[in-house]
Amino acid sequence: MANTNLNGKIALITGGTKGIGLAAAQRLSAAGATVILNYSHSASAAEAALSTLPSDRTLALQADASSPSQMRDLVSSIVSKYGRIDIVLANAGIMPLLPLEQLTEETFDATYALNVKGPLFLAQAAAPHMPAGGRIIFVSTGVARSSGVSPPYALYASTKGAVEQLTRVLAKDLGRKGITVNAVAPGPTDTELFREGKPEAMIKAIESQTPFNRLGGPAEIAEVVAFIAGPESSWVSGQIIGANGASFV
């Protein structure tokens, strides 16, 4: 584990109760940060996540990460309690895998709302309360820049393409305030979201296609998040940082 020092930092993680979000919460907490876990529905999952973190430096707050108004309220609650936000990890997302003929307008709207609209307006709400040295971290995916993915990924990959361009442009905007904006782009990672709707044979096939013959682990992605969140990354902004075991190169 790198010696990233986040003592005294206030970190907000959407979708923070499982998978990459929880792994990032554990990693940032281990580096000394106070971590606010945002969750959408399951209070029991939030309680289970909190049990893995220091009770004096962790808080769980419910809000719909696809709703700009609820993201504004979430930010207001955190600022009221802590006075600022230093790190935002916009991790909440969904990954519907549907062929073109099965796509609906409702699925399109819901996917863009959570994967794109929510992160954008969360950044808008948080930025005025972030001091110089603040970090905004989005989550993309290796499939956003690969033509070798299967057709059912089209909608999901398109949302992450939007996230990547937001990363580049917002980095120029918020750089004036000393805030960096980056995205981590995982490859196949062993999370509930990744496994959802995939039979075990498909999982094995994906593993066999990676150079390391395995899936990535959430903790491995969390290490990249910790670097982006830490002081060592002060000159890294507007970047899409792949964490994919050479799966997308």
TrEMBL record:
Pfam families, per the entry: adh_short_C2 (PF13561)
Entry keyword set: NADP, Oxidoreductase
Membership in a protein family: Belongs to the short-chain dehydrogenases/reductases (SDR) family.
PROSITE patterns: ADH_SHORT
InterPro entries per UniProt: KR_dom, NAD(P)-bd_dom_sf, Sc_DH/Rdtase_CS, SDR_fam
Chaperone listed as a keyword: no
Domain of life: Eukaryota
The protein, known as: Ketoreductase domain-containing protein
Domain Ketoreductase span(s) in chain numbering: 9-187
Record organism: Xylaria bambusicola
